[in-house]
Amino acid sequence: MAMAGWYQSLDQQLVAASVRLSCILFLDSKIIRLLANHPFFGITVMTADRNAGKSIESLFPHFITQKDLPILVSSNDAIFSDVDAVLCCLPHGTTQEIIKALPKGLKIVDLSADFRLRDTSEYEEWYGQPHRAPDLQEEAIYGLTEIFREEIKNARLVANPGCYPTSIQLPLVPLIKSKLIEYKNIIIDSKSGASGAVPEIEQGLSHAAHSKVTVSFTPHLMPMSRGMQSTIYVEMAPGVTHLYQQLKVSYEDEEFVKLLEKGVVPRTHDVRGSNYCYMNVFPDRISGRAIIISVIDNLVKGASGQALQNLNIMMGFPENTGLGYLPLFP
Amino acid sequence: MAMAGWYQSLDQQLVAASVRLSCILFLDSKIIRLLANHPFFGITVMTADRNAGKSIESLFPHFITQKDLPILVSSNDAIFSDVDAVLCCLPHGTTQEIIKALPKGLKIVDLSADFRLRDTSEYEEWYGQPHRAPDLQEEAIYGLTEIFREEIKNARLVANPGCYPTSIQLPLVPLIKSKLIEYKNIIIDSKSGASGAVPEIEQGLSHAAHSKVTVSFTPHLMPMSRGMQSTIYVEMAPGVTHLYQQLKVSYEDEEFVKLLEKGVVPRTHDVRGSNYCYMNVFPDRISGRAIIISVIDNLVKGASGQALQNLNIMMGFPENTGLGYLPLFP
Amino acid sequence: MAMAGWYQSLDQQLVAASVRLSCILFLDSKIIRLLANHPFFGITVMTADRNAGKSIESLFPHFITQKDLPILVSSNDAIFSDVDAVLCCLPHGTTQEIIKALPKGLKIVDLSADFRLRDTSEYEEWYGQPHRAPDLQEEAIYGLTEIFREEIKNARLVANPGCYPTSIQLPLVPLIKSKLIEYKNIIIDSKSGASGAVPEIEQGLSHAAHSKVTVSFTPHLMPMSRGMQSTIYVEMAPGVTHLYQQLKVSYEDEEFVKLLEKGVVPRTHDVRGSNYCYMNVFPDRISGRAIIISVIDNLVKGASGQALQNLNIMMGFPENTGLGYLPLFP
Amino acid sequence: MAMAGWYQSLDQQLVAASVRLSCILFLDSKIIRLLANHPFFGITVMTADRNAGKSIESLFPHFITQKDLPILVSSNDAIFSDVDAVLCCLPHGTTQEIIKALPKGLKIVDLSADFRLRDTSEYEEWYGQPHRAPDLQEEAIYGLTEIFREEIKNARLVANPGCYPTSIQLPLVPLIKSKLIEYKNIIIDSKSGASGAVPEIEQGLSHAAHSKVTVSFTPHLMPMSRGMQSTIYVEMAPGVTHLYQQLKVSYEDEEFVKLLEKGVVPRTHDVRGSNYCYMNVFPDRISGRAIIISVIDNLVKGASGQALQNLNIMMGFPENTGLGYLPLFP
Prior knowledge:
4 copies of one chain form a homotetramer. The first copy, chain A, is built from 11 helices and 12 strands. By secondary structure, the first copy, chain A, is α/β, with parallel strands linked by helices. Chain A has 2 domains: 4-161 and 301-315, NAD(P)-binding Rossmann-like Domain (Rossmann fold, 3-Layer(aba) Sandwich); 163-298, Dihydrodipicolinate Reductase, domain 2 (2-Layer Sandwich). Chain A is globular, with a radius of gyration of 20 Å. Chains in contact: A-B, A-D, B-C, C-D. Chains A, B, C, D: It holds the Pfam family Semialdhyde_dh.
């Protein structure tokens, strides 16, 4: 392929770039869609213990056209010799042991919650069991791409953020860092088809604030297969009258985070199927307050899309490679 | 009918109880459903200028079985001699003149916004035109049934509340009256298939607080034909640790307002098609705060159901007459 | 209750009319809704083995207002001494033994498929196990109300029809009996949220035709919580040019089966929550053919509503008692 | 770009390939999505009379990231000097005059119904007005790609098929051509969010049959923003027992038409957002009959996707260029 030259200049040792998906969850089928059009990645191994021996199209008929995908194998039968990178989509809790056992040279993006919380005692508190790979936890980089891009570049293991934390931290972290909003009384009302927890959000905001931030977080289950909206109610710092300008500066060079024109309400169906986060900030009737709305496709920017964005960075590829999907509207 | 005797003791002069619906809007078809099973009301006149001369079933095939309903007439052709009460479902703005011209002896429940705001200058500000019936405005009683029941009993004209204000004021008014929550920083995040405005809400809360209350109100449009959920974020007054008990006391004798068991989340499909408001109060992660969730069917308790509840009271009927519909779940 | 006098004149032996629901399935919650407003029935026993000891409102919050409902008991603990009638909503297969063990004096409507097929060898073929109560099967009356009303009056055990068979047989049986359509090449394309089978349909049509009828039946799963539409493609008998008139004659005195005005398409949301079946017949572009469309709420006329209609008949009550719900539109 | 060389061999004069979209309809936003990732096409002109002067992102916020798109202009202000091809998405009826006035050298794909019917008298009968460009009608090629690919290669004007006709003709044309099914009594029951008409379908099937085919066609409106399913009931020719094999042979080399494994039911959400048509054939309970199910995304293979597929062919590009979108599931 014409791309080979450029690719080899990137990494002379690689014969063929390849990604190994560690299991077949619901989530995974989204990654396969993204990788199917990726110019540098092929999928060489896909594991799925209960479905070992089956084709992916027998489980997901919408992949009937993807005849090059490997047959599913059990984790024990997976061979990593041709593998450069792993996207790990195992359930929370079982991931730690699996990743501990992987060859050290692999680049790993983990989509579970297992390495998202820096404080392993907090992990134990929320997930009800001690962390079994604290060393890896220490090494893991939190993969909120636009905030931790530099750290991700050199990471070996990236903990991909949850969907709610992605939609919430992207607007709040710049505002907290710039001290434009109060750290107290941040109220978050999110709507999606998924449930979620709050420690990851508070960790990210506390890190940005250099002090403990506790938020009010209420996720509402909606009958939607894709899409997540977070409405965030904040108090502005004394004398602050503008949040819009800060978000504009923070994200004007970002490809996947977009501040809308003033007054335009972000809508989930405007990002469906894409890796975009749309956001905007609105005045509140109560003086000194503001309302922020952000939307993502929870299955793309909130999961597999951001995972691929991170992996692109880790591998030295252009960050947007394979992510050029425009929203599917309507 | 066997009920006639009881009914005559209520009003000897009446030959046949009757309700006149003043127009055929989307909204109206809901009232017809409720009146169809009402033991004391018959519908003698229905007006609909553009559809005058048509049967209701030709517009709404689900009424094919209601063969006793009168043919639609234009407003000018409506005869009020046999009419005791009017449910007025005209668009905002056109209602004032119509009601001004009605015979004085009629009981009227108006479902438009025209008589909801006590301050006619506020009406002008929000609706962009001066109020054309300020005397009637002065006379009108705000029909939030559980709060203003005594005033409704003797009212001639009731302004039926909007759906958002109903779902929001029912939980907040008792908490404000009892001074259990702060009046500032009340944040309301509502989800429904309808849009809405805030002055009616602030009027009701200010009235309960005896001081001006300004709220943050964000309605979210959801793809749902029926159902409204309001999530309300409040600060408790200093030293207050409980809101649940107050709501329990306030509503324990109410038929249509139900405080759920602690921990149970109110869901819109649990009230669909019924006149119930379900509510509950939850602790917030942020100390000193609480989260209230209330749900109604916006087309019943938020419109025609509460209208009939009010009319029952105005006519001296048992308040729940014709409103014994259990929720249609699923 | 004031109704007792009238009720006693109906059946002097009864002290209190009562219905025993034999289990708590998804389906059952619909029957409870219907019985809650029924003037002659109270619910004295509800069984649910896994949920024994719980209240119905703890399982279905929309029943929070129904404080008179009995606590769920296990089948073994159910006492039938005060019970006059049973609505049995157990899964297919387990029903036969349960009903065999009930006191002989009870009126029973069974909502499972266990007694719907007259030919027990056909039952065995479709359900994979021999029928364990062939005597009861012989006794059972098929409860398609408008077709078998006379038989139902004296029945002790009624097999309530499936939802697809109800929506399909109601229009087809009169047309087959009057020999207006060919028995061959009947094509049925149904849309609902449920799956279904065909032997019950063919049994009913064959019975009407006095000869074996085989149909083409394709049920399509749609994302709808309530509602079922059957589109039926038929060949008219030689020389026949009208089907509408026959359906009009067949159903003009029926309360729950309605032939719409010519040209009006039956829509599922026009019968939602009600016991109605709406139908109509349309000309086909292909000469000699016709298209029939019928709609029901699969959870009412297709299940609990027809069950109550049957039970009313079996008890000698007016057939529409407790079934006066107008459709919930929209 | 590496592709430039190949492209220049196609047309030495072009500096930049470009497509002119003739108007902004709902439909058009889909084409823009497809062209955004197309390697050989840029969009140089977009017309929209009422919205002239606006950006596309002000109308469709999901295009906020497409900063290179031209500002909308009115039809009169459109300049065609840099334009090689036109995708015309004007309403039925107004298209004829517009296309008549275009420079003769342009390749045109028209998405309206104006040039789909070969017989202009049939056009007049169905659309209520005489055809105003019968010469163009004569020249137009019907763009059902897999059936008329050879004709499309040399076409100047392609009439892009309607969505229902696409989903119906793709399975039926090969079966009719091979005389495996009877031409009479073809019954088509389609489900989608759009309405549709039948003459285009009968034209295509009659052409394949070399004799007049009249079908029974019933489109059902479903609450779905994308997706179309056609269920087709056919009689097999005497002695025929297999249709599957014929469809397999007809489409085994096609990229966008897929016959599923035996027994797998095509589902609309398995093709959502993609240019695929999935189909399968099932035995019928009635001997001698078969049931065919086909699904497409009505906004892609049923409209803009097939349009781009056709334009690729007309321009000499690989047919699948810019169409490599996998289905967006779920």
